[in-house]
Specification:
Chain B: Its main location: membrane. The complex is a heterodimer of chains A (287) and B (268). With 287 residues, chain A is an alpha/beta fold. Chain A has nine helices and ten strands. The N terminus of chain A is likely disordered. The chains are: A alpha/beta (287), B mainly alpha (268).
Chain lengths: 287, 268
């Protein structure tokens, strides 16, 4: 009901048709059994440079939060860029509900590390940006977004400027804007790293609740192992040294043994299962 | 107790700070005017070479209707030139931002055009366009478009590349990225460029009038110079300064109106 699906192929010209893939022909409503987001053997490189990431495969299901952990500079953001369609992989495929979307932007919601709110737009107009870009009038977009403000903890801030809000509130607004992009797959690039420690903890819990409620498929990248283990149901550990000539690969997929019910990250972080998963991820990153 | 009194004393330096910012330059200016008056009254500088401030004030009051009617001409030329200059500057900036080839082709030429002295171009323009409004407006356009172009181009380029990426993930068109992201990002720099252009506009119009015309502050200036009435000459200078200041104030007001978020951030 809240979701707004884009009729992606053909809407913006022939870009879609240039994807050399057999899956394009079967493009339609998508396979209901396929994961929401899947990457198959992605190999990525900077333009003309050596490979940054080699043979990365991952998948994210509906309602799931999955983290991709790695040291700074190991190519995490490069992977998100490719998954969002901003860049084209050297080889490999990006599938959305089983449909090939490799190298075409506009299918997934991408939230960057910075909140990237436009200082000259009021909060309501900032969160409406994807709707306006999608062709709605400003009034229509506002009418659609206003009832959602409360759910995102933004009630009463509609007419404020971004510069007047706290970091946590700005991040909420950025997340609401991401949500209004209307895709059920969300990519997060260290979304809470700019916040103070307490706000960060609050926002992690808030995000997990919201994404379960909205049944989003979330892939978050982070270098904060605590963040990854406290939020994710599965963690991909990315290891390598691209600047030293060693392309990164996924060292292991760690399944976090989360008890059902106690899904709040701040509570889970106090359990032995948390420590066990943290130890495993740290040893993979260290070695 | 001691802490309390220190806390209360805090706001005071701010208050006196504002008073000082007004009082110190005011006293300095008055002191210079008095020294100037004394210098002439005591005969150290002969009066036929330098009028006293009181004589200048008298000339300003006596010639006021004439100064007003000439100011109207100069203001009209400046305003028209500034508006056209803004439009030209905006067009250049958009093309330079959009097409790298255009930027590479024209940016050196635009820079070189600014090294040509205004005073050298004005007579040529009069030769081509006559003594009317046209050569003045063209000169103002030539002097004002440059700061606008430069400030807008750097404003457009100041936009966060991540913001552009974010827009692309929303399938935004190039026009939407320009309108939603680049324009607001350039607003602040545009207004600093416009402030500079506003002062150039008045000076450009006056210089152009010096070299030929029927009315305007520049024409009036050459007339009083020929009759050696230096008091009226100084009066014109005061009027030119006042007009430039007023135009800058207008730009500041326009900026406050167009960028309400800046004020909100300032109050935070």
């Amino acid at each position: 009901m809240l979701r707004r699906k884009r009729d992606a192929p053909g809407a913006d010209g022939g870009e879609e048709g240039t994807v050399p893939s057999p899956a394009t022909s079967s493009a339609g409503s998508g396979d209901p059994l396929a994961p929401s987001l899947e990457a198959r053997s992605l190999t990525l490189a900077w333009e003309g440079g050596p490979d940054v990431v080699r043979d990365v495969s991952l998948h994210v299901g509906s309602g799931e939060v999955v983290c991709l952990v790695g040291r700074s500079g190991c190519g995490k953001t490069t992977i998100l860029h490719a998954l969002s369609g901003l860049t084209r992989p050297v080889s490999g495929m990006v599938l959305l509900h089983g449909r090939d979307v490799t190298g075409t932007p506009g299918h997934v919601s991408y939230m960057l590390q910075k909140d990237l709110l436009i200082p000259s737009k009021r909060i309501i107009d900032n969160v409406c940006l994807p709707l306006v870009v999608g062709g709605m009038s400003r009034a229509e977009a506002r009418a659609k977004a206003e009832p959602l403000m409360e759910r995102f903890g933004l009630a009463g801030t509609e007419e404020r400027w971004p510069g007047e809000l706290s970091g946590g509130m700005r991040q909420r607004a950025a997340f609401m804007r991401t949500y209004l992009m209307g895709n059920d797959v969300v990519l997060l690039d260290e979304p809470f790293s700019a916040l103070d420690a307490l706000t960060r903890t609050d926002m992690r819990g808030w995000y997990c609740r919201m994404s379960a409620e909205l049944s989003l498929a979330t892939l978050a990248i982070t270098h904060d192992v605590d963040e990854a283990v406290s939020m994710a149901s599965r963690i991909y550990v990315l290891r390598g040294n691209p600047s030293g000539g060693v392309p990164s690969t996924i060292a292991r997929e760690v399944v976090v043994d989360r008890p059902k019910g106690a899904s709040a990250p701040e509570e889970f972080a106090l359990t032995p299962a948390f420590l066990e998963a943290k130890r495993e991820v740290l040893s993979l990153l260290g070695g | 107790m001691a802490q309390g009194s220190r806390g209360e004393a805090r706001p005071a330096p701010h208050g006196t700070g504002r008073a000082r910012r007004v009082a110190i330059p005011l006293v300095t200016t008055l002191a210079i005017l008095m020294a100037w008056q004394l210098l002439v009254v005591c005969g150290i500088v002969p009066n036929f070479m330098l009028p006293t401030p009181t004589q200048v004030m008298a000339a300003l009051v006596g010639d006021f209707p004439l100064l007003v009617s000439n100011s109207a001409t100069t203001l009209a030329e400046s305003a028209l030139g500034l508006v056209i200059g803004c439009a030209v500057g905006f067009a250049f900036a958009v093309l330079m931002d959009r097409f790298e080839g255009f930027r590479l082709a024209f940016s050196p030429l635009i820079t070189i055009s600014q090294t040509i002295p205004t005073i050298a171009v004005a007579p040529i323009l009069i030769l081509w366009l006559g003594y009317g409004l046209a050569p003045k407006v063209v000169l103002v356009v030539l002097t004002t478009f440059f700061p606008i172009t430069v400030s807008l181009v750097s404003g457009f380029q100041s936009v966060d590349p991540d913001m552009v990426d974010l827009m692309r993930t929303m399938n935004a068109t190039r026009w939407q990225i320009f309108w939603q992201v680049k324009m607001p990002a350039a607003a602040e720099q545009f207004f600093s460029g416009l402030r500079i252009s506003a002062t150039y506009a008045i000076v450009g119009a006056v210089i152009s009038e010096w070299l030929g015309g029927f009315s305007g502050l520049g024409v009036y200036m050459t007339r009083v110079r020929k009759s050696f009435s230096y008091d009226r000459m100084f009066a014109v200078i005061i009027i030119i300064s006042a007009l430039s200041l007023a135009l800058m104030g207008l730009v500041d007001a326009l900026q406050r109106l167009c960028m309400p978020w800046k004020r909100a951030e300032g109050e935070k």
